[in-house]
Amino acid sequence: MITTTEQSPSRNLQKKTCTAVAQISATLTEDGVIQHFDDVNSITFGTLAGAVDERAEALLTLFRKTPANAYDSAQIMQELWDKFVFLTTLAGITSLMRASIDEILATPSAGRLIAQLIDECAAVASAVGFRLDADKFSQYRTRLTRRGFGLKASMLRDIERGSRTEGEHILGDMFARAQRFQVSAPLLEIALTHVRTYEIQRVVNSAEIGERPGRAPKIAEIAPQN
């Protein structure tokens, strides 16, 4: 999710390129209803170079007519990395445990393991150059240990449906960066291995019953890139 924005070819293009970070936990039910799982519904946008852009004010005006909370940011790459840390932690812990945050928190070790995983992801972000500030870090810890919302990542919902996941784009990307910057991330590696194993099982099982699983992941594709 970060790689595309990192590949912007020129400073001039970065001044013109607008990107956004959405914060929402929702899914589409079988009967076509969008189900919202908690009270977070925000979007933050800005240019990659942090330049002032009149399009931002136009977007803010439009979003004021909606229930969503909209913000303009001069540090959109930091916002992207903040979400990357949160999303990787949520996807990693719920996919690894095959359970919602509520269910995981019912176990004795939940708080410690969630804290370990977000610490690992935050350490990777810091190594890359995008350290989370204390308030944002505290906010994410609170969301990841808050009961009553049944919070789970869309990655787990894909697993529950037997669908292909974004494991490599999220967990794999974060772990590859951990290796590149020599950041210890043992729990992240376990979560990634769990999802990779699921993907292999999914392809094998689909082949056994004669379904078309889509393009099977190759080992070279799922190996971390140094």
Q: Just give the CATH class.
A: Mainly Alpha
Largest sheet: 3 strands, mixed
Mean pLDDT: 84
Terminal CA distance: 18 Å
Q: Strand tally, please? A: 3
Secondary structure tally, helices = 11
Order of helices and strands: HHEEHEHHHHHHHH
Write down the CATH topology.
N-(1-d-carboxylethyl)-l-norvaline Dehydrogenase, domain 2
Strand content: 5-15%
Task: Identify the overall geometry.
Answer: globular
Low-confidence stretches: 214-226
Rg from Cα: 18 Å
Overall helicity: 55-70%
For the record, the count of structural domains works out to: 1
CATH architecture descriptor: Orthogonal Bundle
What kind of assembly state do the chains in view correspond to? Answer: single chain
Structure, explained:
This protein has helices at 3-6, 11-16, 54-63, 76-97, 101-105, 110-128, 134-144, 154-161, 167-180, 186-208, 219-222; strands at residues 18-28, 34-47, 69-72. The radius of gyration is 18 Å and the shape is globular. Strand 2, helix 3 (54-63) and strand 3 (69-72) form a beta-alpha-beta unit. The longest helix has 23 residues, at 186-208. The protein is 56% helix and 13% strand. It is α+β, with helices and mostly antiparallel strands and 226 residues long. The two termini are 18 Å apart. The protein has a single domain (3-222), classed as N-(1-d-carboxylethyl)-l-norvaline Dehydrogenase, domain 2 (Orthogonal Bundle). Helix 4 packs antiparallel against helix 6 (110-128), helix 4 packs across helix 9 and helix 4 crosses helix 10.
